[in-house]
């Protein structure tokens, strides 16, 4: 069964006027592609918070993840540095995409270029229960490659 879509409110900011809102490129796309509101050039090794020209209000109990586009990553080495970026449901500032250029060439972004994708997700919160001992397991404290290659 396909879960019903949640409603996210989107407020267009003045410098984002005229830009297309985030949108699904295909019927089955998981992410809504989001476009840049600015022209920018990312030098090799550089990072920047790229403005999108909108703010959103996500319903309580959800987040929006900001994820890279694989085409930009593969062709240009351009990715979201903090992937997946987290948009909190109580954030009302401008959504920004933290892009990093891990490639060898400068990467030019034009206003209107699709730079990332937004994926809403339910958030499972937790309460922490501080204890003196934790139940033992076969793994124990092994990790970071302890099971081999
Ligand atoms: O890719 C991102 C990541 C975050 N944000 C905004 C929305 C998010 O709700 C807020 C805070 O993000 P996060 O919690 O990841 O950053 P922080 O360094 O912990 O900042 P803060 O102390 O404001 O929570 O910044 C974006 O616009 N784009
Ligand atoms: Mg935070």
From TrEMBL:
UniProt feature coiled coil, ranges: none
Record lineage: Bacteria, Pseudomonadati, Pseudomonadota, Alphaproteobacteria, Sphingomonadales
Record protein name field: Deoxyuridine 5'-triphosphate nucleotidohydrolase
Annotated substrate binding sites: 69-71, 82, 86-88
EC number, as in UniProt: 3.6.1.23
Known role: This enzyme is involved in nucleotide metabolism: it produces dUMP, the immediate precursor of thymidine nucleotides and it decreases the intracellular concentration of dUTP so that uracil cannot be incorporated into DNA.
Gene3D superfamilies: 2.70.40.10
Span of domain dUTPase-like: 22-148
PANTHER family: DEOXYURIDINE 5'-TRIPHOSPHATE NUCLEOTIDOHYDROLASE (PTHR11241:SF0)
Associated pathway: Pyrimidine metabolism; dUMP biosynthesis; dUMP from dCTP (dUTP route): step 2/2
Top-rank lineage group of the source organism: Bacteria
Molecular-function GO term, any one: dUTP diphosphatase activity
Cofactor(s) annotated in UniProt: Mg(2+)
Top enzyme class: hydrolase
Family from the record: Belongs to the dUTPase family.
Keywords: Hydrolase, Magnesium, Metal-binding, Nucleotide metabolism
Swiss-Prot/TrEMBL catalytic activity: dUTP + H2O = dUMP + diphosphate + H(+)
